[in-house]
Amino acid sequence: MSILDSKIPEGPLAEKWSKHKAAIKVVSPANKRKLEIIVVGTGLGGASAAASLAELGYKVKAFCYQDSPRRAHSIAAQGGINAAKNYQNDNDSVYRLFYDTIKGGDYRAREANVYRLAEVSPNIIDQCVAQGVPFGREYGGLLDNRSFGGVLVSRTFYARGQTGQQLLIGAYQALNRQISKGAVEMYNRHEMLDLVKIDGKARGIIARDLVSGEIKRFGAHAVVVATGGYGNVFFLSTNAMGSNGSAAWQCYKRGAFMSNPCFVQIHPTCIPVHGDQQSKLTLMSESLRNDGRVWVPKKKEDAVKLQKGEIGPNDIPDEDRDFYLERRYPSYGNLVPRDVASRAAKERCDAGFGVNSEGKAVFLDFKYSIDRLGKNVIAQRYGNLFQMYEKITDVDPYTEPMMIYPAIHYSMGGTWVDYNLMTTVPGLYSIGEANFSDHGANRLGASALMQGLADGYFVLPYTIGDYLADEIMTPMADTNAPEFAEVEKDVKDRIEKLYNIKGSKPVDYFHKKLGQVMWDYVGMARNAEGLQKAIDMIKEIREEFWKDVRIPGELDNLNPELEKAGRVADFFDIGELMARDALDRNESCGGHFREESATEEGEAKRNDEKFTYVSCWEYKGEGVEPDMHKEDLVFENVKLTQRSYK
């Protein structure tokens, strides 16, 4: 049985990180050249980590399954990135960002990790400005800020509605600089399929060349996984279709604990599902809630007419509109956190007030801000988002309200890591969305980009040296070692088993079935009966998958369906663990809403006496129930209270 050591430093909260950096080991410049690090994933976390580690002098091998690091899913982030700079002079501070993040996560995150995130956040903005990221600016040239859900200050830096793209370009150019210097070996179109351990330590990976189909071995002194989240277990999500949880899942099967897998985020402002042939959903930035007002009709008969297409939204006068977020949560209004806004939208639609033909949408209306500020100001702030919405829906949001509905967006759960971002496997690190560490049960908007860049630029480059200082005399991993051969055989056997099923149904058939089960029973609302049903149904679909999936194409060649099959096979296992974790956590917190644990007003009700811990699942073998360990969460600086945004 593994013992969890979070390595949280002693001392006052505001001094933990600086004291920790002063106490941990450092590798000299000459010795860094002897050490090699594998970084898997080239989004904001992976690209910034690979660039920073190479800049320090380590030899780095970076991997991405896309044709270019620039196609990482970080590019899709729209609204902004948080930082505690107090540029608006509205009483923001590092502590306020820390507190908002702890509260927004419903008190299910480590104080020390969250405070460090807030502490390094101002450095991220300086770094990105130096890289040329074109943040929005005020008339006088100073960087502008806007608000996001769950906060009462303006601390979100943005580049119109394409902040993720601009930040990724900054990290990408830093990475490219190191590639051109020979400090980073870049492996595009390579997918990590398994982790190799030697003497209990992470010493390499097995990857598949997605162009040729060749299985390859890569060795290193440490491995960093920065491969994002597992939201596509639901099939329909805001994630890119290629986003998957397989790399982290293979690490789990090699001994890395998986923490809080039931914590996934439902984003309230997505374009609603239309028909049954969609392959993904489109996110509309949370920043839109700064100037858009969310509403449904007050009268059910008006909602029915909208659903039938007999009237349009502009036919309903203001006095017959229910601005339900402003009504329920007057202090925060339309800027309540994502989990609160999502559940409120579902409640209105379930009550029969939905506004599209399926009754699964609410309005996000900019009429009032256009009247107040003018169309040009709104176009300057959100123009590309409005254009994107119109291209997808053929509705002009300048003249008609947007329709939105909640959708799966982000994974707060992930690989367990200690304060140094190392997993329970020595030498294996997990950063960004791939780990569990900084958000708790719900992520505040504009914090994903902050965490990815904080981990890659300002945390991992310090903490990985503490481990590598003891590996200086360790020779480079021999890829001819029996450990590599054994793991490679496991990978090949699994691929061949999948390919040779020769069934009758395509991969997407099974993925859609799994996604429907996940959405129905492990989605926005959960209960014990439904979760147990989900576990049973997932087992049935998985069994059918391994008997009847059809993978066309060649085994040893370019084959996207083969890639997809391996990822979906992992999604079955991930989905089952998510349901198992949700069943164990009989409380409501953040994005995890158990119907058995709600207030009289229908809000999430935590149980701090029993569930103030991180769930840490240990793999025990194929078909064997995993063991659950607990890392107790200790709150010394904030008082645990039931969240209220009223």
UniProtKB/TrEMBL annotation:
Domain FAD-dependent oxidoreductase 2 FAD-binding: 37-449
Gene Ontology CC annotations of this record: plasma membrane
Active-site residue list: 338
Class of the enzyme per the UniProt entry, highest EC level: oxidoreductase
UniProt-recorded Gene Ontology molecular function terms: electron transfer activity; flavin adenine dinucleotide binding; succinate dehydrogenase (quinone) activity
Catalytic activity: a quinone + succinate = fumarate + a quinol
Keyword list, A-Z: Cell membrane, Electron transport, FAD, Flavoprotein, Membrane, Oxidoreductase, Transport
Keyword Cell membrane listed: yes
Membrane topology: Peripheral membrane protein
Cofactor: FAD
Location of the Fumarate reductase/succinate dehydrogenase flavoprotein-like C-terminal domain: 511-645
Name of a matching Pfam family: Succ_DH_flav_C
Ribonucleoprotein recorded as keyword: no
EC number(s) given by UniProt: 1.3.5.1
Family indicated by similarity: Belongs to the FAD-dependent oxidoreductase 2 family. FRD/SDH subfamily.
PANTHER family: SUCCINATE DEHYDROGENASE 2 FLAVOPROTEIN SUBUNIT, SUCCINATE DEHYDROGENASE FLAVOPROTEIN SUBUNIT
Protein's name according to its UniProt entry: succinate dehydrogenase
Gene this chain is encoded by: sdhA
